[in-house]
């Protein structure tokens, strides 16, 4: 995959504030596009500073660089099929579904519309007209675990998952494995919120972990995780962001973030589609493919030994010498 490029998030916000449409009314009459892209965002929608925003930025970049137009839908009520069918009716070249929660709906709609090409991000489908993209979240989370263990003074760190699902298990298990690799005596507290959209709940769970001496908290929980990060900042403890660089959320707490390079994936696949076809039916992206990674480390300084350890484990994961667990034992 192509290396991550710097994207300007302010473009998206300015566009949203201006109330502009993303589709044809903004284009000159008769404009011809190489591709028309539709996207159904995951539950938390735009403005999450993470998963959805990253995918949106990838499409914005594609719109700037390539001859494409795109439209999007949000489904906070869980009406995925309805939103997908609205996009199908617009005769899209490609329709993207974000998140494992949309998989059942996208497969149903794909089977009903076999000529329509779909892309499922964060799930694996065997339906013929659905291309699947999954990430090795455990590999990027392993690096976060190493950083957490090296910066923790209490010897206790925390993980907060959004829902009890395989994709979140990968975050959790990678984080635990990395932390214990760096410090075998580290204690890792782990809680599941059961919700991606409750900032107050995230703050409450973080408070419980802080009360148990956790001084580094890693949430993989959408808006719920934002609440946890803000609570960490309130108490002067460290945190890690997820999916995108979330340093801006809490600049006194976020040491680093596990990058899930959805923006790059979306851009590259749209680019491939414009140039020809997406030949592969499924992509699984980890450190070796530059699909996941670690944001800049701020606030906490790793000593030379810690920096060397972090670089060494990354090389060993890429080479296969370290195989990071992705499921609970």
Automatic annotation (TrEMBL):
Pfam families: Bmp. InterPro entries: BMP_lipoprotein, Peripla_BP_I, PnrA-like. It is a lipid-anchor. Residues 1-24 form the signal peptide. The keyword Signal applies. Keywords: Cell membrane, Lipoprotein, Membrane, Signal. It comes from the Bacteria. It is found in: Cell membrane. GO terms for cellular component: plasma membrane. Coiled coil: none annotated. Belongs to the BMP lipoprotein family. This is ABC transporter substrate-binding protein.
